[in-house]
Design brief:
67% of the residues lie in helices and 0% in strands. The chain has 171 residues and is an all-alpha fold.
């Protein structure tokens, strides 16, 4: 009896004989929109991802252009979000500028995005040091060097590194 029920269940799940479900191929615009729904992408990044998925370069460029004109893709919005996200993740301005450059943004777009940052880079650097070394900060020269190395790897400039690793009460 149980075997008969299982067989009946499998038969009802199957498509009717002779009718196969046809999977429709997505257009380049639909594929690009699917990527943009997940997160912001730069024009360069979106075009690269589409071509990596087998879409011809011309079709990918046209799809990105169409979405850009419709307001779905915007390099300015992408850059501002990236600056905010990376700064909140403990990265400094040098790292963020370099990353924005890899996304095909020009120097004016990068400068405009960096200007939208409302925080304090030195305070961000100090927060990073506090998370790693505790509230008191680095206690000796070796710890200060480790803190400076950490901040340099994260893309902070020399002045921010010096001020973040000193932990003087006057600062």
């Amino acid at each position: 009896m149980a075997q008969q029920m299982r067989a009946a269940m499998h038969d009802s799940d199957a498509p009717p004989p002779g009718r196969k479900r046809r999977v429709r191929e997505q257009t380049p615009v639909q594929r690009a929109l699917g990527l943009l729904v997940r997160r912001e992408h730069s024009r360069k990044e979106l075009t690269r991802k589409l071509t990596a998925r087998g879409i011809e370069t011309e079709a990918a460029t046209a799809a990105v252009e169409k979405l850009s004109e419709a307001g779905w893709q915007d390099d300015t919005r992408f850059a501002e979000n990236l600056v905010r996200f990376r700064a909140n993740s403990g990265y400094g301005p040098l790292h963020i500028r370099a990353e924005l450059g890899t996304h095909g943004l020009d120097s004016e777009q990068i400068a405009a995005a960096m200007d939208t940052f409302e925080g304090d880079w030195i305070e961000n650097a100090r927060d990073m040091v506090r998370r790693r070394f505790g509230e008191a900060g680095p206690q000796d020269l070796a710890q200060r060097r480790k803190a400076a190395d950490l901040l340099a790897r994260r893309g902070f400039d020399g002045d921010s590194i010096r001020r973040a690793t000193r932990f003087d009460l006057e600062d």
